[in-house]
Amino acid sequence: MSAKPTDLRDLYGTIHDMDALAQEGLAEIIAIAKLALAAMESPTNHPDMSTIARIFSGIWMKSEHLAGCIASEAHGVGCASEDEAALRRTKAFIASQKAV
Asked: How many structural domains compose the chain?
């Protein structure tokens, strides 16, 4: 498949955007994790369980958002990856529900 100049520009733009998303999102996740670890090392500022739960929730939500944004960008230029095992599990689940 030969790429047209506009295709290459689109691909370049998408790669640039994904890099920016990854750099920003991962920097936030790293900062949250570092703060949590530092707080856990302090006998006077040790976080309670609800704070730790919020930290993990924040990491989870940021990771999900980042993954969704990157997948959307990749899909936009026809380069989305597919998890074949996840697709098989989904198909098996749907089949099991129809069998009931």
From this structure: 1
Distances (CA, A) of 34 to 23, 25, 66, 97: 16, 14, 19, 43
Band (pLDDT 50/70/90 cuts) for residue 42 is confident
Tell me the pTM. 0.67
Number of CB atoms found within 10 A of residue 14's CB: 19
- Residues found in the chain: 100
Q: Which residue has the tokens 């520009």?
A: 9
Residue type, 49: M
Task: Phi first, then psi: give them for residue 66, nearest 5 degrees.
Answer: -60, -45
List the domain range (segments joined by +) for residue 72.
5-99
Q: Give the integer Cα–Cα distance in Å for 22 and 4.
A: 27
Orientation of helix 5-40 relative to helix 49-76, angle to 10° = 170
